[in-house]
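Hi all, posting the design record for the shared folder.

TITLE: backbone redesign
STEP: 1 of 1
STRUCTURE INPUT:
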């Protein structure tokens, strides 16, 4: 039975638990074994004068991370961290572990080397549970509204976000790349299924060693026909609001354990504050930032705009030259595009990039040429504008960026079980 079930049975119930030894401490009179399973941890107490000698010795000698079965009775105990403990009568050692290499004083790089073991820690377990809830909530948001989940390919011939961050692949002697974004495929599927979303890994060969970049991340990419820039922003803000509510409903305990006050996340509600890129640049210039209209924002700019906020900020209508080729020109101001970024509060940085899509093939061709792209690779994409093209919009949400903000995690690598960063791709 799971620890959670045992606690539900309550005072005096006979229980048989199995799991791993999380902590262990013993004197010559009593052995404390803190047992861990998928539902939590619980203290199991073996008293020398109450159990058989052999049982006491096994419990007193057990090493951390050994796998065991423990029998006993459950008791409420105010001093126990979870309010319960087990008065143990028997222990069956399934596997007595070797000395566990992870101890309290280990360095970050050691923990990354031992990631396959570190994922058993409380911090990682809480993070993974929150992560699962966030992903579920995101999927359900779209499914409940009739959007269809689709699967774009991960091996591609062309760039979606420019050539500089592509991982090359030898595809039987031809050049291929790991996908940076499923967007172009999601657009193609939009003309088939209207409202679609993809949730898949994206790859970015970015050497930048920052706290918000990984080279492999999970990318949620919704795309919809008949949706314009305004509605696109509304969808993004409602999605974030929905995810925040679900996480607080289902994972408040884990959030608190990770050091995030659930109230802060509970108070996030759409619509968010919005500002145009032009307004943001004016604000930044007033504060002495050396930014010119046309420059993209870096970390310091995003931090300044959001560090004192409790809710995300949506910044819209960036200059054409700062953004990707597929974004629709603003008919009122062709030097800017109908796009937006949703920037997390407290300086956590951009979480979403989205836009209405350009439908004029000549504009697309001119922009691709400016980027120096090989047009042959985009023939299929340009085809989409020839056969029943309609206004459409979409966006990309980096799940790890969202998790980092929601869980108040210092580094993005701790939002995914096995992170990929410029200098690490194992374990
Ligand atoms: O480059 S994006 O801003 N936009 C796209 O890829 C569009 N093609 C998405 C779309 O419209 N379907 O990336 C989108 C998001 C960005 O806001 C981040 O949250 C995340 O993807 N992202 C990353 N997360 C973690 N690590 C890295 N390196 C990274 N790069 C982008």
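Okay, here is what came back for every position:
SEQUENCE:
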């Amino acid at each position: 039975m799971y620890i959670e079930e045992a606690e539900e049975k309550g005072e005096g119930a006979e229980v048989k638990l199995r799991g791993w030894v999380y902590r262990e401490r013993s004197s010559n009179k009593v052995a404390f074994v803190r047992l861990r399973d998928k539902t939590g941890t619980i203290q199991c107490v073996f008293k020398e004068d109450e159990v058989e000698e052999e049982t006491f010795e096994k419990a007193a000698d057990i090493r951390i991370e050994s796998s065991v079965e423990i029998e006993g009775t459950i008791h409420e105990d105010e001093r126990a961290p979870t309010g319960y403990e087990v008065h143990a009568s028997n222990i069956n050692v399934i596997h007595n572990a070797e000395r566990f290499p992870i101890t309290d004083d280990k360095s970050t790089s050691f923990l990354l080397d031992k990631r396959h073991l570190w994922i058993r820690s409380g911090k990682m377990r809480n993070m993974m549970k929150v992560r699962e809830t966030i992903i579920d909530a995101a999927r359900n948001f779209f499914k409940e509204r009739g959007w269809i989940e689709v699967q774009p390919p991960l091996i591609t011939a062309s760039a979606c976000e420019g050539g500089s961050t592509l991982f090359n692949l030898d595809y039987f002697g031809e050049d291929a790349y790991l996908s940076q974004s499923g967007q172009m495929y999601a657009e193609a599927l939009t003309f088939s299924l209207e409202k679609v979303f993809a949730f898949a890994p994206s790859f970015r060969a970015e050497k930048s060693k920052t706290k918000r970049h990984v080279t492999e991340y999970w990318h949620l990419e919704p795309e919809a026909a008949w949706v314009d820039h305004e509605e696109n922003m509304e969808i993004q803000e409602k999605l974030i609001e929905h995810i925040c509510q679900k996480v607080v409903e289902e994972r408040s305990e884990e959030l608190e354990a990770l050091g995030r006050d659930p109230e802060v996340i509970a108070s996030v509600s759409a619509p968010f504050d919005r500002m145009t890129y032009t307004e943001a640049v004016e604000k930044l210039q007033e504060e002495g930032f050396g930014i010119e209209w046309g420059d993209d924002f870096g970390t310091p700019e995003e931090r300044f705009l959001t560090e004192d906020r409790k809710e995300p900020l949506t910044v819209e209508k960036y200059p054409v030259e700062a953004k990707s080729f597929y974004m629709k020109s603003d008919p009122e101001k062709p030097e800017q595009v109908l796009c937006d970024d949703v920037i997390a509060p407290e300086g956590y940085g951009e979480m979403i990039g989205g836009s209405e899509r350009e439908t004029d093939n000549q504009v697309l061709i001119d922009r691709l040429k400016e980027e120096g792209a090989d047009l042959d690779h985009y023939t299929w994409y340009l085809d989409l504008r020839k056969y029943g093209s309609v206004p459409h919009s979409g966006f990309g949400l980096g799940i790890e960026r969202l998790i980092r903000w929601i869980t108040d995690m210092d580094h993005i690598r701790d939002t995914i079980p096995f992170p990929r960063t410029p200098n690490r791709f194992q374990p």
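COMMENT: Residues 160-161, 181, 183, 204, 206, 213-214, 217, 219, 221, 350-354, 394-396, 398, 400-401 surround NSS (CB under 6 Å).
Let me know if anyone wants the other runs.
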